[in-house]
Amino acid sequence: MGFRVYRPYVFPDAIDPAIGKELQRLGVAFEPVLHEATDAIVCLLATKVDAALLDRVPKLRVVSNVAVGYDNIDVSACTTRGVVVTNTPDVLTEATADLAWALLLAAARRIPEGDHFARSGKWKRWDWTTFRGADVHGRTLGILGAGRIGQATGHRGVGFSMEVLYTSRERKLLFEHTTMARRVDFKTLLRESDFLSIHVPLTKETHHLIGAKELALMKPGAILINTSRGPVVDEAALAKALKSGKLASAGLDVFEKEPKIHPALLKLGNVVLLPHIGSATDSTRRRMVETALRNCIAALKGEMPPNAVNAHALNKA
Ligand code: NAP
Questions:
Q1: Residue 52 contacts by C-beta under 8 Å, 6 or more apart in sequence?
Q2: If we measure between CA atoms, which residue out of 131, 110, 135 comes closest to residue 122?
Q3: Edge-to-edge order in the sheet of strand 28-31
């Protein structure tokens, strides 16, 4: 007996041979199509797992997302059907925090604009006023959502002598202890941050959490960084705030309608745009695949996977 695993994307990474052996032992066959006999799904964010899809796969045991965010999956519809949902936390935390900082520095110091200018042949002489940006050191870094990645981003701020503020539903004592971070309410975070870095998951509550009203509360000349999910920010409102000069700049790795980018953002020079590459390093991507496969294997063996996001709900059911 074996298992049929729907895997719409073929990952090129060489994985731990022990995982390969276990998949072989279990008789796992990866397939590019979903059908009635599918036992498991190993997928990326582009796969929308909703009730309609679940109705087509009555034998399904697990949806193993190769990402920490799982807003592409209807978790309650999975739970109702006894399907476990898993993600890949921790292994991508540092890489994503590094990218948030790459965006922060690039937006503050106008790195893409400078690079473009240096290549363009327009650079004729050194000029005192060319590409002046914003100071980073000693300023205030606001973390919206101080979970794994938010805290890792905050930790890096200490090296830049920044004051770190954060907003989270729960207090993070260890984070406060190691960074001197101060927990503040959402409005204070908006009003006092020179840099606002967003790290909340996308949920009904966080959809457009940053809109025109929130942007209006931010400091003039503040810089916004988003490496969480695009729909947390109202892109049209952000484009207006950038165009008017209310915000000095922004750095975005994620967008509301990926891979489409709001046309108003594309026209602006003061926004750094990246194609959702927060976790895109070789070692991180390899560890994400390994984590997802370990989760899938555990579920196929009838065990609760280490990164089950609905374990609690399933245990209660
Ligand atoms: P996490 O550890 O679960 O952290 C999320 C934090 O957000 C938690 O601390 C949570 O609060 C907080 N939060 C949730 N709702 C909130 C709200 N309404 N207001 C304030 N705080 C709120 O997750 P993570 O591993 O850091 O990942 C965060 C997100 O980053 C993921 O969900 C994913 O969407 C995104 N991500 C993007 C990339 C990329 O390639 N750009 C890569 C990895 C992850 P409490 O802890 O207080 O409950």
A1: none
A2: 131
A3: 28-31, 3-6, 40-43, 62-65, 84-86
Q: Is 287 exposed, middle or buried (0-12, 13-18, 19+ CB in 10 A)?
A: buried
How many distinct helices (H) and strands (E) make up the chain?
Answer: 13, 12
Instruction: Please list the alpha-helical segments (H only) found in 56-211.
Output: 75-80, 93-109, 111-120, 148-158, 173-179, 186-192
Query: If you measure from the C-alpha of residue 46 to the centroid of ligand 1, how many angstroms do you get, rounded to a whole number?
Result: 19
Instruction: Quote the CA–CA distance of 284 and 228 in Å, as a whole number.
Output: 17
96 close to ligand 1 (CB < 6 Angstrom): yes
122 Cβ partners below 8 Å, 6+ apart? Answer: none
Express each pLDDT in 106-136 by its tens digit.
999 999 999 999 999 999 999 999 999 999 9
Dihedral class, residue 27 (left if φ above 0, else alpha if ψ from -120 to 50, else beta): left
Contacts of 27 (CB under 8 A, 6+ apart): 1, 2, 3
pLDDT level of residue 315 (50, 70, 90 thresholds): confident
Global pTM reads 0.97
Ligand 1, residues 66, 71, 88, 199: which to mutate, most atoms within 8 A of Cβ?
A: 199
